[in-house]
What does this fold into?
Amino acid sequence: MHHRFDVLMPVHKGLRHALSGLCFRAGSMDVSDENEVQSFADEFGRIVTILESHSHDEDAHMHHLYEQFAPETAAKLEQEHTVLDETIHRLQQRIETVRQASPAEQRKEIWYEVNRKLTQFTADYFQHLQREENEGAEALWNHLTDDQLKEVSVKIRSSIPPSTMMIFLHYMMPALNFEERFGILNDMRQFAPPEAYQAVRALAQSRLAPGDWEALNAKLESMSKVS
It folds into this structure.
């Protein structure tokens, strides 16, 4: 069904990128370095912001569709949301404990637990995303047109505060393919305020490899000349 409009795949790519990077960072960092621990805690907080936003957006704009077209899947997703939300907040509390802990040996002991639980959370969260992309998406594709799904997507994007959207895009831009990046920026070029478009352009430039940014910018510039 790759030819159908996919409401969730772009943001799911960003969430996978965010959590995978967090696991890598957690496993490689020097937990005795207070600045590194604080930096990790700050990034963890930003990722919690988009995880909470994603869960809220699905509850507000998609859960009723799952209930209508796939009630068993809706129940599974709702149960998973509850467990995952509780887990990530417990993890956030443990990371705060690490940040405040002394001496260094105590930090290392707590961090060992945090690292393992973060890895388990990420594995569970990825399974949850798979359920949404498979069972959930199939139910939507079987009952809604692409135009209807695009309306859902617009409602979700419109409900996200700009500051939260920038966190999403920070992780999404490197994880998306060329056409997905271009689609986001070209839509903003046409419909968003100029300052918002320029801010996302700057973000994309900072997050992409030079060659990827040059290719994207060239196509955007060509579209600007046409319009």
About this structure: The CA atoms of residues 201 and 217 lie 8 Å apart. The mean pLDDT is 94. The chain has ten helices and no strands. The first helix runs from residue 9 to 28.
